[in-house]
Structures are given as structure tokens and as C-alpha cells.
Design a protein that fits this description.
alpha+beta, Nuclear Transport Factor 2, Chain: A, 6-stranded mixed sheet, 9 helices, 12 strands
Length: 346
């Protein structure tokens, strides 16, 4: 009996030694995969002409890619697309990653892209989402969000149209913009008292979602969560301070009372909330439907937000404006003809 107990004790000791060792190996492998995914996501975003052949294998054979204009399916078309875009239309393309997060199998990052497109210089801000295969560093899905207006703004023949739309939009919603057009009616603003709360990530998720799904019926509810140095950006407008944000939202929903946003996917980590979404409704009578992505940054450990940016293409809004829709469809035809291997220009 004593011998059996002694053997059992020895066996238990071996198990106690092996289990932590096994867990340590698993943690190490998970950490290595996480680091590799961060490096792959960053490399795919910062891809330059000399990197294309080396980085293509990080996409799966059935990879799916989307941007505001192009939809790609399969590695063959993805290879052709990247060759036509980076080796052909934009050989000096340069992308710099700003913020990045990796949650489970999803990598997201904001970036600044610059270069030339068919000889026309441009600079654009954007955000991307990559989805990895389970336990792999191969990407099966990528979507880039940016506004084609940043390219149109430097394209002769299209620059006046995009600048005209941006002026029209800022006149309608930006309280700091010196509008050259007749001023819109002033909208009465409601200012909420700022409040502080003990917060965790789940609370940040709720607040981030509320900021993205904001609409005419609830926009005043987000004001208490804006820090005194809060800033907001979209493809056209830059807003600084909660009071100016309140004026902006009042004007926006005065002209877009039926504007609604539905979240598709969302993540929260390291006090940063990101979400993809679809926005639909009307802007000053022009109907539109637009996909987009947002980033919201919180003061560490709180639900007070100091920064948010919405990424979408203003071309989706311009499509509903008489006289501008032709400009957008013309540019998209021009762009797809240059980079989309499956596109046949009408």
C-alpha cells in the first residue's frame, strides 16, 4: 500500500511539472503567432513594388478584397490587382501605419497613403481590416476604407467637382467653416453636463457603439463622453472640442434626420474601439448608402473619448446628388480600368 502511494506521489509530481511546461509552450506559440500576424498585417499594408511577389503567399487562394471601388475574389485576381495597382498605376506608393490592433483573428490599422496614381500625386488617410485563418498567418479577407475624393481632389477635371461638394457639405455641418454660400438656419443646441464613471472595456464597447450608431434621436446622449480636448475627423470635416462637436451634430442631423448607421463588426482593446458599419439615409434630400469604418480612442481606463475618426468615401454620398453622380461614376470607371483585372469599361 505504501509503495502504491509513493508511486502515485511520483506520478503526480511528474504531471505537476509537465502541465505548466505545456501551458508555457502553448502561450509561447500563441505569442509567436500574434507577433507574426502583426508583422504580416503591417507588411501587407505597407507593401511597395519590390514586395509584391514576396507578400502574395500570405493571402489564401480564396482571398476576398474590397475597397470603395474594387471587389476582388481569388488569389489570381488579387495578384493581378496588386500588380496593376502597385507596379503599374502607383509604382511609388507609400503607406505608413499609424494605429494597429490585433484581436483574435482580426487585425485592424489606420494609415496614411501617398504617391501618384497614373502620374497624379495624392495623399489619403484610411483604415483597413484583415481576417486571418484560424491558427495561421494567412489572410482570407481584407477591406480598405478611404475616400476616393482624396484622389479626385488632385485629378484635373475632377478636382472642381469634389471641392464643390466638400464646400457644400462643410457649409451644411461645420460650424467653424467660413462658408461662401448662403448660411443655413441656425439649429438650437442642447449641451449635456459632463459626467465621470468607473469604466472597463465592456463600458467602452457600449460608448463606442453609441458614438458610431449616433442618429437624430440620440446624439445629445454622447456629449457627456467627450473629453474637453476631443477631436473628430471624417473625409471632409475636422472638429475640435465638445461644444463644436455638439454644433456639428446638430447641423448634421438637421439636414439628415433619417440618417442611420448599423454596425457590422466591432472590437475593443487597449482603450481603442473599432467598428465596421453601413450608413444609409438622406443628406439634404440626397439618398445614399455607404459602408465605412470608425476608430474611437478612450482616455485610459475610462469611457471618456478624446479622438474619433470615420472612414468612408464621399463618393457614395455624391452618387445621390444630381450633377455629381456622373463625376463619381466617371472616376470609378477610370480607376477600375487601371487596376481591376476583371473590369470591362462600358
Amino acid at each position: 500500500m505504501k509503495k502504491s502511494i509513493k508511486l502515485l506521489a511520483i506520478f503526480a509530481g511528474i504531471i505537476a511539472f509537465l502541465i505548466p511546461q505545456a501551458c508555457s509552450d502553448v502561450d509561447k506559440k500563441d505569442g509567436e503567432l500574434e507577433q507574426e500576424r502583426l508583422e504580416v498585417g503591417r507588411a501587407l499594408l505597407e507593401m511597395q513594388a519590390s514586395d509584391v511577389a514576396e507578400l502574395i503567399p500570405y493571402y489564401t487562394d480564396d482571398v476576398e478584397y474590397h475597397d470603395p471601388i474594387v471587389d476582388i475574389n481569388g488569389i489570381q485576381d488579387m495578384t493581378a490587382f496588386l500588380n496593376q495597382l502597385i507596379l503599374g498605376a502607383s509604382p511609388n506608393l507609400s503607406t505608413i501605419v499609424e494605429d494597429e490592433t490585433l484581436m483574435d483573428n482580426t487585425y485592424t490599422a489606420t494609415w496614411i497613403m501617398s504617391g501618384t496614381f497614373n502620374g497624379v500625386p495624392y495623399q489619403a488617410k484610411g483604415i483597413s481590416i484583415f481576417k486571418f485563418m484560424p491558427n495561421s498567418s494567412q489572410v482570407y479577407y481584407q477591406r480598405d476604407y478611404y475616400t476616393e475624393g482624396d484622389i479626385m481632389a488632385t485629378t484635373p477635371g475632377l478636382d472642381e467637382a469634389i471641392m464643390g461638394f466638400r464646400t457644400f457639405y462643410r457649409c451644411a455641418v461645420d460650424p467653424t467653416f467660413e462658408c461662401p454660400l448662403p448660411p443655413p438656419d441656425e439649429v438650437s443646441m442642447v449641451k449635456s453636463q459632463m459626467s465621470s464613471q468607473d469604466q472597463i472595456s465592456s463600458d467602452q464597447l457600449v460608448v463606442g457603439r453609441q458614438l458610431v450608431e449616433i442618429h437624430a434621436g440620440n446624439w445629445v446622449n454622447v456629449l457627456p463622453f467627450l473629453e474637453t480636448d476631443y477631436e473628430y475627423h471624417d473625409p471632409i470635416v475636422d472638429i475640435y472640442g465638445p461644444d463644436t462637436m455638439a454644433m456639428f451634430l446638430g447641423r448634421l442631423f438637421a439636414g439628415s434626420s433619417e440618417l442611420y448607421t448599423v454596425i457590422d463588426e466591432e472590437t475593443i482593446g487597449d482603450d481603442i474601439y473599432m467598428a465596421t458599419w453601413t450608413m444609409s439615409g438622406e443628406f439634404n434630400g440626397a439618398a445614399f448608402n455607404a459602408p465605412g469604418m470608425s476608430i474611437v480612442k478612450f482616455v485610459e481606463g475610462t469611457t471618456q473619448t478624446y479622438y474619433s475618426r470615420d472612414y468612408y468615401t464621399e463618393g457614395d454620398v455624391m452618387l445621390g446628388v444630381p450633377g455629381l453622380s456622373e463625376v463619381v461614376t466617371g472616376f470609378r470607371d477610370y480607376y477600375r480600368s487601371a487596376v481591376d483585372p476583371n473590369y470591362v469599361s462600358p
